[in-house]
Design goal:
With 414 residues, the protein is an alpha+beta fold. 38% of the residues lie in helices and 22% in strands. The strands form 3 sheets. It has an 8-stranded mixed sheet with strand order 1-5-6-11-10-9-7-8, with helices on both faces. Strands 13-12-14-15-16 form a 5-stranded mixed sheet. Strand 3 and strand 4 form a beta hairpin. Helix 5 runs parallel beside helix 9. The chain is elongated. The relative contact order is 0.12. Bound molecules: adenosine monophosphate.
Length: 414
């Protein structure tokens, strides 16, 4: 027996309707805001991720699925989608076609993390990327877009955390002060954090270890290192969020794990999710397009996990239950023959969802099956009905039965 790979999941036949509901909600919601979908390949040249996400991040240093193909190309299954969308934007010189582009994506991603609740090795995200605007109203738009998405789906206990990590210079100044401060506690830090002290000290701020959290509490805050311009930008963003009645918490230690962010960073957390509580994260990345070979272009986006969204969604309340309009019961071969035209008519002219039995079960067990499948009506077609040119229609909710002539079927189901 060969099983699926650890950290991956089948989305079974009795779950796909939930995914389809959420996916079509995402498409509808984002289109309404003027965003267009982009679909990029699931694998890319490894260099793309090295250069965008950063060599010293967890993703690049230990989580990527990378291999050399038969042509000696180093390839990687995408661990996130911003880099691919930026590549697409640059490769197609989209900066020349319009001053602003609002894109969204939805699809699977791959990271070799330790699997646990809400954390998989193949998981799905949807997200947006906006290229061209350097103004805080763009930050506010993207943040509000993600926040309101969860509100519309009635996700409870969500908290929007927001911070500014300023421009490159402010960040460099901050990192050197943070390093100086953490050096004092070097012997108390975990092995991992000690290593990060040299490679990526900002990541230590994400620690989940209690004694490190205590050390972090007194660490310098990036907000104190922002330039006046950075501060003004951040304040304007917050003002716009206030104008939209979006509630947020400023978290001075929110920095996010990837190298490419600048200025605004944010995360939406759901308190009822346990340790993997981040539903969505994003921020501004004004340098990335240039770093990947394009023209200097301000940009901002977010990525949202779909598995975690499903974990926090009240599925029974929000996702309509699967049901079928009609279950067609046939008794005898002549009835089966007649049913083909009827099935075709009901499905393709009347646009109804109709299921029929092909197991030649008894009337009783077909009715039982119809109940199980949540059918609104059953049609009964046996020898007697055939002879009289009618069908019996039973309303499964009320139990009421009607006799309907073949010629009246259209009117009956209108
Ligand atoms: P990131 O790209 O790391 O900023 O993650 C954005 C969002 O994707 C997170 O807030 C999660 O909802 C989701 N996510 C990230 N990694 C995983 C994973 N391994 N399994 C499931 N969801 C994930």
């Amino acid at each position: 027996m060969i099983n699926n790979i650890k950290g991956t999941k089948d989305i079974g036949f009795n779950e796909t309707y939930i995914w389809q509901f959420v996916e079509s909600f995402i498409h509808g919601y984002l289109k309404k805001h003027g965003y267009s979908e982009v679909r990029t390949p699931t694998f890319e040249n490894t260099d793309l991720f090295y250069r965008s996400i950063g060599e010293n991040t967890d993703i690049v240093s230990k989580e990527m699925y990378t291999w050399k193909d038969q042509g000696n190309n180093m390839l990687t299954l995408r661990p996130e989608l911003t880099a691919s969308i930026v590549r697409y934007y640059i490769q197609n010189k989209l900066n020349k076609t319009h001053p602003i582009h609002r894109f969204y994506y939805i699809g699977p991603l791959y990271r070799r993390e330790r699997p646990q609740k809400g954390r998989f090795r193949q998981f799905h995200q949807f997200g947006v990327e906006v290229f061209g605007s350097k103004h805080p109203e763009q930050d506010a738009e993207v943040i509000a877009l993600s926040y309101n998405f969860y509100k519309l789906l009635h996700i409870k206990n969500i908290v929007l955390k927001i911070n500014s990590i300023g421009s490159k210079d402010s960040r460099l100044n901050y990192i050197s002060s943070l390093k100086k401060y953490l050096e004092k506690y070097k012997n108390e830090l975990s092995d991992l954090s000690r290593k990060r002290l040299n490679t990526n000290p900002l990541r230590i701020l994400d620690t989940k270890i209690d004694f490190e959290i205590n050390i972090i509490k007194k660490a310098p805050k990036i907000i104190d290192y922002l330039s006046n311009d950075d501060k003004e930008y951040f304040n304007k963003t917050l003002e716009f969020l206030d104008a939209m009645n979006i509630s947020y918490e400023i978290d001075p230690y929110l920095v996010r794990g990837l190298d490419y962010y600048s200025q605004t960073v944010f995360e939406i957390q759901c308190d009822s999710l346990g340790s993997q509580n981040a539903l969505c994260g994003g921020g501004r990345y004004d340098y990335l397009v240039e770093e990947l070979g394009g023209k200097e272009t301000p940009a901002i986006g977010f990525a949202a996990g779909i598995e975690r969204l499903l974990l926090s969604l009240d599925i029974k309340k929000i996702v309509p239950e699967l049901s079928i309009d009609i279950y067609m019961i046939t008794i005898g071969e002549l009835a089966i023959k007649k049913s083909f035209t009827l099935l075709d008519y009901l499905r393709n002219t009347m646009n109804l969802t109709v299921i029929n039995d092909t197991l030649r079960r008894t009337l009783k067990s077909q009715i039982k099956d119809a109940n199980k499948m949540n059918a609104k009506h059953v049609i009964i077609l046996g020898e007697e009905e055939l002879n009289k040119n009618h069908i019996i229609v039973k309303n499964m909710e009320t139990g009421h039965q009607d006799i309907v002539n073949f010629t009246d079927i259209q009117n009956y189901f209108k």
